[in-house]
Amino acid sequence: MKRKTNVQNQATKKLSPFKKPSKDQQVLIDTAKSFICQHLRDTKPAVLVITGDAGTGKSVVLSQLFYEIQRESHHQHNQLSGTNNYFIVNHPELLKVYRNLAGQLPNMYKKNFQRPTSLINLMNKQHNQFDVGVIDESHLLLSQPDHYNHFYGTNQLLSLLKIAHVLVIVFDEHQVLRLKTYWTKKRLQSLLAPFTQKWLHLTHQFRMEADPSLINWINHFTGDQQLLPIQKGFQNHYDFKIFNDAEAMRQQIVNQNKRVGLARIVSTTGYPSTLDGGHHYITEGNFSLPWDQYNYSSTPWAEIPETINEVGSIYTCQGFDLNYVGIILGPLVNLSQDGHSIIIDTDKITDVESFKRRQDMNDPKEVLQAKVTLNLNAINVLMKRGIKGLYIFAHDSRLRERLYHDYQLSLQ
């Protein structure tokens, strides 16, 4: 029991408002509060957009900001007194973390942490509005109707703007993962054009204790798809390894999980995966583990001890810190013919739910590029989960040989 508590503390401590933010983060928090107070009584809604790459502390800023807003809303003689505010996140696993945290803090109530569809439907039913909405992972907001999830509007951000006075949103176009939540910076700017807005940006990498050269390697891998040389510096203060055996990687992850906790195997799409309640396995040589299952508990997937025997996906890992992550680059990630870049084979996508056709995207070239971009985004998200270490195994034999060869050269 003590072991589980320690792991939970590791997973949620970064979001605790009692953790002192950095100087840059505090400046951003103060700027956000000033923006909220300035526009709280405007006749039209105002929006503050916070951008930044994975691991730059966006969620930390939002958590601290919301705590301060709620604290002031319960005290008299300030501009936020009596305000009705919500923290909004369209990620069920991340929502569990925030709600668990809320139960431990004064002036923070679980009811103030909502998924967007639930809040939109509640406000519309009551013909009501709220004052301040803080939206984590706004790139996960639906940008089209989704009747399966009981959202009947055209766009969740527009629906929230109709019922809020001020929104503070975190946005990272490199973490957009589904066509039904398809956002680009250009699309967001176009949607927000009629509203008062301010944009702020975070740059410092807080999650990964990694050398900037490794971050740059990942950014090229998942951006322009170029394979840069693997350098010795990748191992500076960080455990970076390339494996040519998936089972050997799993064993290393298990060892790290026993040592420090929060070490997990994750994978891209490309392997059999259907939400039918059954087990669907990823098999690579002697390696064989099932995909993560839908998590009905109140404990986030990464904090459940038994999930060391599952393979996580972007749906269970996005927004979370792991100590060590072992990523399997599935069948859709291949080495180009010239050996200098990677290519994404969209015909090998098995996550069909995420790539259902949109009515407003009729150009086949646009759809194809979107699929490539979304899969590169998923790799970016998964590669940047690990605080202390990143391990990689590639299904494609040519890519696996190239990466392993480059890695071995870097060790000499």
UniProtKB/TrEMBL annotation:
Protein name (record): DUF2075 domain-containing protein
Residue ranges of coiled coil: none
UniProt-listed Pfam families: SLFN-g3_helicase
Residues spanning the signal sequence: none
Domain annotation AAA+ ATPase: ranges: 44-181
InterPro entries in the record: AAA+_ATPase, P-loop_NTPase, SLFN_3-like_DNA/RNA_helicase
